[in-house]
Amino acid sequence: MICVVDYGMGNLRSVSKAVEKLGGQVEVGSKPEDLEKAEKIILPGVGAFGDGTKELKARKLFDPLRESLLQGKPFFGICLGMQLLFEESEESPEVKGLGVFQGKVRRFRKSGLKIPHMGWNQMKIRETRSKAFQDLADSSFFYFVHSFYPVPKDRSVILGTCDYEGEGFPAFVGKGPLWASQFHPEKSQDAGLRILRNFIFQ
Fold it and tell me: What are φ and ψ of residue 22, in 5° steps?
């Protein structure tokens, strides 16, 4: 069973429907015991970094989620769900993230960029051996909506990158069974569904 985490910060329906369409068994969960019984976890998310951590803590999900990640339970973070894996964000300077990956989430810096970065863009695969990218063509297009992106201290966790008008950023990070995308795979047609399928059946 795959638990799609409900913490008030994501489009749960579109993610759940995509997973079900691909043959995965989904339950939307909002309690610590939902994470414990799940075989895999998906953390979607839209909105601010500080609000995300606040809502996880209010639902008593923050510590159990971090523990599940540290124990190696398969996990897929989407958009804000990716950013929350890091230690901190320029968006909410006083707030600490899950800290599973070292590094900081920062805002696009290049002058003249239209923010948020919204729409379709290509991802360059850095780690072709990753199971996340099985049967996926390099430079496939994915759908993005974001103003911030993480900068990992350990560059080896960056599995895929993207360029937005000359400013490059990590589009996909991962280590072992922990995967996360800055794009929305559930909105990214065949390429996004391929990555979700790889997660379901890894």
Answer: -85, 0
